[in-house]
């Protein structure tokens, strides 16, 4: 089976990017990274691909008058590298309907809560303020809402009495590094099927040969 080409969007330290790199290197993930795109020229994530044969591109929002022009530049760059799945790995911008529609069904994100609980920013702080006993992380496809897309995988993490935002975030992040490559792997193996908003995980690819896989974002 040919490797699915990933386009990784990042803004910060890139720990989830590193977990994907590690999974590919260990041959646990049948994928290759076609390009890493950051909106932040100082992102540590870009340093993580140094020494790898992976293009790193910085596209800054301030260089574009309109948000759609900024997102078009990102989408065009993804297409240049023949990206088949867009992976948000700490990309700190909300994508507009324009970008989502252009790449619909092919954008994956990870969020540090058990959605639909605690969407949006500061999910760990939300969980602590609410008094939740369990939190976790969710891998989901992107739709036009804020963390409302179809759920692929979830994993629970206990909230301890002595937890701070930092300790809870670190515990959740450890699970993210396991769950995200696993979800991407299911996509790459053709084992995800979305019906309405429910994502089914197939035991095997149903009636689809290696030469029948759809490629590209458009």
UniProtKB/TrEMBL annotation:
Q: What class of enzyme is it?
A: transferase
**Pathways involved:** Purine metabolism; IMP biosynthesis via de novo pathway; N(2)-formyl-N(1)-(5-phospho-D-ribosyl)glycinamide from N(1)-(5-phospho-D-ribosyl)glycinamide (10-formyl THF route): step 1/1
Q: Which GO terms describe its molecular function?
A: phosphoribosylglycinamide formyltransferase activity
Gene Ontology biological process terms from the UniProt entry? 'de novo' IMP biosynthetic process
Q: Which residues bind (6R)-10-formyltetrahydrofolate?
A: 67, 92-95, 109
- Does this entry carry the keyword Transferase? yes
Q: Which UniProt keywords apply?
A: Purine biosynthesis, Transferase
Q: What does UniProt give as GO cellular component? A: cytosol
Which reactions does this protein catalyse?
A: N(1)-(5-phospho-beta-D-ribosyl)glycinamide + (6R)-10-formyltetrahydrofolate = N(2)-formyl-N(1)-(5-phospho-beta-D-ribosyl)glycinamide + (6S)-5,6,7,8-tetrahydrofolate + H(+)
Catalytic residues of the enzyme: 111
Pfam families the UniProt entry points to: Formyl_trans_N
Is Transferase set as a keyword in this record? Answer: yes
The source's superkingdom equals Bacteria
Q: At what residues does the UniProt record annotate the site feature described as Raises pKa of active site His?
A: 147
Q: Which InterPro entries match?
A: Formyl_transf_N, Formyl_transf_N_sf, GART
Q: What is its EC number?
A: 2.1.2.2
Query: What does it do?
Result: Catalyzes the transfer of a formyl group from 10-formyltetrahydrofolate to 5-phospho-ribosyl-glycinamide (GAR), producing 5-phospho-ribosyl-N-formylglycinamide (FGAR) and tetrahydrofolate.
Which family is this protein grouped under?
Answer: Belongs to the GART family.
Write down what this protein is called: Phosphoribosylglycinamide formyltransferase
Provenance organism: Lucifera butyrica
Q: Which gene encodes it?
A: purN
């Amino acid at each position: 089976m040919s490797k699915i080409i990933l386009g990784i969007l990042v803004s910060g330290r890139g720990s989830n990017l590193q977990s994907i790199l590690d999974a590919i290197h260990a041959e646990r993930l049948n994928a290759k990274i076609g390009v890493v795109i950051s909106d932040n020229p100082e992102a540590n994530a870009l340093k993580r691909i140094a020494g790898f044969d992976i293009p790193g591109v910085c596209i800054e929002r301030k260089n574009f008058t309109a948000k759609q022009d900024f997102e078009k530049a990102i989408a065009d760059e993804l297409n240049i590298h023949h990206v088949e799945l867009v992976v948000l790995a700490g990309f700190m911008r909300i994508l507009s309907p324009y970008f989502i529609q252009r790449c619909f069904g092919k954008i994956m994100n990870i969020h540090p809560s058990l959605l639909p609980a605690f969407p949006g920013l500061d999910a760990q702080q939300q969980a602590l303020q609410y008094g939740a006993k369990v939190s976790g992380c969710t891998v989901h496809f992107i739709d036009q809402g804020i963390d409302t897309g179809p759920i692929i995988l979830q994993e629970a993490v206990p909230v301890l009495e002595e937890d701070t935002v930092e300790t809870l975030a670190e515990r959740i992040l450890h699970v993210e590094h396991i769950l995200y490559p696993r979800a991407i792997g299911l996509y790459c193996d053709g084992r995800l099927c979305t019906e309405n908003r429910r994502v089914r995980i197939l035991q095997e690819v149903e009636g689809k040969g290696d030469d029948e896989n759809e490629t590209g974002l458009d």
